[in-house]
Write a structure and sequence with these properties.
The protein contains 20 helices and 13 strands. The protein is an alpha/beta fold.
Length: 617
């Protein structure tokens, strides 16, 4: 027979059992990754993950336990109904988080945190991103989790028995208070000095095993409450050491290679959505997907070792236009107060007499990008609302050929010299493009491959028409991706191949001697800004995180160096190889044989110093 004072242990067991079941669902949903784990790893996922499961359970138990005290003191307090209502609402929220995390992990490679909240203001774009998800399966899983929660509650908790006759209300409230005190230990995960966090459940050299051990409710709440409040969570080295190592990357270069016939050309800066190096032939990727880019690599200027700073569009935008590093678990673009302090190519060029404009077929409000771009000082914006409904033939808005054709019509009226930025979108999920498929297959990788081919094709048409325009001979065209992609091959979230992207320079403003130049210097997206400003002979004082890729590489790193970050980790690439590091587990994920220890130390210094700069803005 259930007693009233067994309610708290039963309620605790209910949530703990539910979280363990949710972990099992995660492992089953990603059965291919689970099957690839070493023998004996799955039981350890449950064992190590139990600390966060218990902590999350304790936090969720706190409100009902407080209600229990009130119900013990107040005779007509609807305690049972309130606890059931609270549990039902929270159960729905946790189930939704759990199901959303299943598919987001497949696409993004990290567990659900506060990141999707950046996209709540643009629900249509969120829906477009999720179009390739198995909606019916996810809905079935959501329903299954809700039913499971109801069954567990009925079996483990049930109705709350009345207060026993002769048992004083004060004594009952005291018993409830003692149960609350017992929650303190599991909340903080033990008696250790530092409360439990993700690193406590990381146990494996395989990132998926560590990620699977994380409790999703704990992870979301932690990222919402604690992100960016300081102190710097990436404190690897003494600050003076970190600053010294990073400063060595950005020491003034004695000379650079001048590629332009004129110091003040028009600049057409085209950002290519998700253009991964894995599908770019001249970067060693698949042949035939980007014939336009590969042709330009033979006749114009190509950079062979550029890496995206991060893995989201808004992160790539800041890295390219402000030369500013990404943050491992957030994005500076979410904080207008901080982005107002960033340098910006548009602002510098506008100060030098350039007119400015920005073209995008989608909504600029997506991921808070518009506040960043308005602060940058662009004089004119063309976005989704500026296109006729008939031209909005993409889930995201207007397809790339529509945007490029409009830009081609309007550029003759743009006051010269101009700095015009265009951001493509057709190669974003769900990869629906208005042309006959070039490559067979209906799977995600094939649809992505076809979408990249489409954008490359219409880009080639645009450039062919642009060469006939009077402004072409005085124009430099910059072609660069915002980030890479996990397809094809479902590349791991941290792998260098996911971050390698194209960067090419073309246009009539290039000197004849620049034709066919290949730049082997390793660099990051953040270096594009300084490289461009050096060619324009404009000051790059504020771009302290950007270096000129056409100048000699830093003395300490011959051949250059590229830094990128993913969700709570980073990678460092040099000519001798790459290394990836997990900030939470504080361990190396992958390391090429020839990579020296100093390369890891440089990555740690860069992560620490750049995030410290972010916190201070």
């Amino acid at each position: 027979m259930r007693t009233r004072f067994a309610f708290q242990p039963r309620y605790f067991l209910f949530w703990l059992t539910y979280f363990v079941a949710a972990k099992a669902v995660f492992l089953l949903y990603h059965f291919a990754k689970t099957g690839a784990l070493a023998a004996g790893t799955v039981p350890r996922i449950f064992g190590y993950g139990l600390r966060l499961d218990v902590s999350a359970t304790a936090y969720l138990c706190l409100p009902p336990f407080i209600l229990f005290i009130l119900g013990s003191l107040l005779p007509r307090f609807p305690l049972d109904r309130l606890i059931r209502f609270f549990t039902a609402v929270l159960g729905i929220v946790v189930a939704c988080f759990t199901v959303a995390d299943l598919e987001l992990y497949r696409v993004w490679g990290f567990r659900l945190d506060a990141t999707p909240l950046q996209y709540l203001a643009t629900p249509n774009e969120m829906a477009a991103s999720a179009e390739g998800a198995p909606v019916l399966l996810l809905l079935a899983l959501l329903l299954g989790l809700l039913v499971l929660g109801w069954i567990l509650y009925q079996k483990l908790v049930g109705h709350l028995p009345a207060l026993p006759e002769g048992f004083g209300r004060g004594r009952a409230a005291l018993a409830g208070f003692l149960y609350i005190l017992l929650l303190l230990l599991p909340m903080r995960g033990g008696t250790q000095q530092i409360p439990v966090n993700q690193s406590d459940v990381y146990f494996s050299s395989q990132p998926f095993a560590n990620h699977a051990a994380v409790n999703i409710a704990w992870n979301v709440t932690n990222s919402l409450l604690l992100q960016n409040n300081g102190p710097n969570p990436y404190q690897f080295l003494p600050d003076s050491t970190a600053q010294r190592l990073v400063a060595g990357l950005y020491a003034p270069a004695p000379d650079t290679t001048q590629l332009l016939r004129t110091p003040r050309p028009n600049v057409l800066f085209i950002i290519l959505e998700s253009f991964t190096g894995k599908l770019v032939g001249h970067l060693g990727g698949e042949k035939g997907v980007t014939p336009t880019l590969d042709s330009l690599a033979r006749t114009d200027v190509s950079f062979r070792h550029l890496y995206a700073a991060g893995d989201r569009s808004q992160k790539g935008l800041v890295a390219l236009l402000s030369g500013y590093p990404n943050q491992p678990a957030t994005s500076i673009i979410k904080y207008p107060r901080k982005t107002e302090q960033l340098p910006h190519l548009a602002r510098v060029l506008k100060g030098a007499g350039y007119s400015t404009a920005y073209y995008h077929g989608g909504e600029l409000a997506f991921a808070n990008m518009k506040s960043y771009l308005v602060t940058a000082g662009y004089e004119r914006f063309t976005e989704r609302a500026d296109f006729a409904p008939a031209d909005q033939n993409s889930k995201w808005g207007a397809h790339d050929h529509v945007v490029l054709n409009r830009m081609l019509r309007e550029l003759p009226q743009q006051r010269q010299p101009f700095f015009v930025t265009a951001f493509t979108l057709s190669s974003h999920e769900p990869f629906d493009v208005p042309m006959k498929p070039r490559f067979r297959g209906a799977d995600e990788a094939s649809r992505f491959r076809n979408s990249m081919y489409y954008t490359d094709h219409v880009l080639g048409q645009f450039l062919a028409q642009a060469k006939l325009q009077p402004w072409w001979q005085k124009t430099l065209v910059v072609l660069v991706a915002d980030h890479g992609h996990h397809q094809p091959g479902d590349t791991p979230n941290e792998a260098p191949a996911k971050f390698k992207i194209p960067l090419l320079l073309t246009g009539g403003a290039l000197r004849p001697s620049a034709r066919g130049v290949v730049v082997e210097n390793y660099g990051s997206q953040t270096d594009v800004a300084a490289t461009l400003l050096q060619q324009l002979q404009l000051p790059r004082t504020g771009f302290v995180w950007s270096r000129d890729l056409l100048a000699p590489a830093p003395a300490a790193w011959p051949g250059g160096v590229a830094f990128y970050c993913f969700t709570d980790g980073f990678g460092v690439m040099t000519p001798v190889g790459g290394i990836t590091y997990d900030n939470v587990a504080r361990q190396v994920i992958e390391k090429d044989r020839r990579v020296p220890k100093s390369q890891l130390q440089l990555g740690q210094a860069y992560e620490q110093a750049s995030f410290d700069d972010f916190l201070k803005k």
